[in-house]
Write the structure tokens for this entry.
Amino acid sequence: MKFLHISDLHIGKRVNEFSMLEDQRHVLKQILNIAEREQAEGVLIAGDIYDKSVPSAEAVQIFDWFLTELAGRGKKVFAVSGNHDSPERIAFGAQLMSGREVYLSPVYNGRTSKISLQDEYGELCVYLLPFLKPAAVRHALEKELEGELPESYQDAVRLAVERMEIDDTKRNILVAHQFVTGAGRCDSEEVAVGGLDNVDAELFDRFDYAALGHIHSPQSVKRETVRYCGTPLKYSFSESEQEKSATLVELKEKGEVVLSAVPLSPLHDMRKIRGTYEEVMSRRFYQGTDTEDYVQITLTDEEDIPDGLQKLRTVYPNLMRLVYDNSRTRQEQSVEAAEEIEQKSELELFGEFYELQNNRPMSGEQAEFVKRMIEELRQKE
């Protein structure tokens, strides 16, 4: 059974005040065609369907069109709400839409939606887990649980998974929207201070495939089948070198999962340009390139160009960002960096160094140990 895994559509998003709606409709048309061409049974949408919890009318219309097209082509849909979504709005009409095999995650109430499918290899179960905060799990289970209620994201997701009653003899897919420790971030994501939203990949060990959303770069974490498919479009210049894709997932008999990335082509690419004003405005420089791409231009001139943004837009109409890199800006950056360091405590600086080296933040126990060590060193001064 084949599925197409997508996530983080962020329909309605604006990047540097440029609306992405036209680009999003363009890439969603591609996804429809890929699902049909690859004969996918269904599409897994792992959260952040909209960019805002109260999406614009235009954003809702695009998602409505996308779901209608998928259902009309006989494709099942399995979608969960993300941290940018309103779980109540995503769940609206879920029971009605399930009649067309469009399955939307309900607001978490202590139980997780499970959809059972059949193919030549037997039963396959798809679990829909919306983005979970510890407070949501505590609210859902406070009357039911006698022990301690979860305080961390790790405990909240662990508890939700434990309550799913998974049959390990069957093939199981999880669609979820959480940050798994060890995943690489980029600038367009919403970051929780100190990595408080981290959960361990081991929580998903019982699933043959975990279709994850929340991280914008395509990647697997700890094992190939715990996967972020990434955004279908570039939403920051930190993603300019990435090739965006949807993940095609094929589950055969139990234990056999085949993954492949299907490239997506944007309406407008997002890329960086660097040079002097005279260089980047030279026909020889931009000839053969798509000047309507979304671009960030870094000018290396020592003096600012009067009305530089407007002049550059005569050649690059979708110029999103203009920055300068010269002796003046480098000096300013050095001063700002030094001032920022001076304002941080020893514990904060050590924590940043630890996370840089280990790709994960310190645990509470480690932070407490470092804090005691710093205090002991101060006493010896």
Remarks:
- The chain has a mean pLDDT of 88.
- The two ends are 66 Å apart (CA to CA).
